Amino acid sequence: MMEETLKIENEPKRVLGIMQPYVFPYIGYFQLIKRVDKFVIYDDVAFINKGWINRNNILMNGKASMFTIPLIGASQNKLIREIEIDNLAAWSKKFFKTLEQSYKKAPFYKEAFGLIEQVFNSPAENISALAVNSLKETCKYLKIETEIIESSVIYQNQELKAQNRILDICKQENANHYINPIGGMAIYDKQLFADNKILLNFIKSNAIQYTQFKNEFVPWLSIIDLLMFCSVEEINEHLNKFELV
Q: Hey, how many other C-beta atoms are within 10 angstroms of the C-beta on 20?
């Protein structure tokens, strides 16, 4: 197996990442997008109740405060792209006021608020569409040029499950290097991927810190927080603070 591993290492890299769609997720999500050649948004898998698809944390009064986008009929028996949003316009109006109260004195408030407002004011029939828009627009703002595609658009392999489906997507994309978030270490088998001539790594974010007014630093908030406090150049520096394991 050592020879196969070396062969994978020596081949030209075609690096793939796959994740469920989250609305304005934390920086680690964007570290993965930036690191890969192509990023697949896994929108045709089961919705996870109380997951991070429709919620995250922002800074309020020096502490992490969760926002949750209201959904209609959210169920783990439905696919993510089948879950509709409950009156996004009304919710967004309140959320914008919360952002103003929390961040109006942040150095990049105007730029960040404009981006967030654009995403939430754009038509989105379901939570997946909203999440995809938030990811693509944030990447555009940060000048991340990774190709992004939804899994429901192309692969047609829903009969496969778990690792087997991931492997099939890698093969369809001719990928020989797959990078997964660190949380997948317990469920993904490096040997199985190596047997299929695909190098498997997990991305682990290093400690990231920046100035949040004069407060004690609160880590791992939504990317919204970084957009408010950091320039595009600073955020891209933070995006490189990770290791592959």
A: 20
Evaluate whether 233 touches 210 at the Cβ level (below 8 Å).
Answer: no
Check whether 8 has a pLDDT greater than 70: no
Cα-Cα end-to-end distance for the chain: 18
Confidence of residue 13 (pLDDT cuts 50, 70, 90): confident
DSSP the chain: -HHHHHHHHHSPP-EEEEE---SS-BHHHHHHHHHSSEEEE--SSB--TTSSSSEEEEEETTEEEEEE--EES--TTSBGGGPEES-HHHHHHHHHHHHHHHHTTSTTHHHHHHHHHHHHHS--SBHHHHHHHHHHHHHHHHT---EEEEGGGT---TTS-HHHHHHHHHHHTT-SEEEEEGGGGGT--HHHHHHTT-EEEEEEEPP-----TTSPP--S-BHHHHHHHS-HHHHHHHHT-EEE-
How many CA within 13 A on the CB side of residue 192? Answer: 13
Scan for tokens 């103003």, then name that residue: 100
Query: pLDDT per residue over 132-188, tens digit each?
Result: 999 999 999 999 999 999 999 998 998 888 899 999 999 999 999 999 999 999 899
Q: Which amino acid, residue 21?
A: P
pTM above 0.70, yes or no: yes
CB 104 within 8 A of CB 147: no
Q: Where are the domains of the chain?
A: 2-60+79-244
Cβ 166 vs Cβ 200: under 8 Å: no
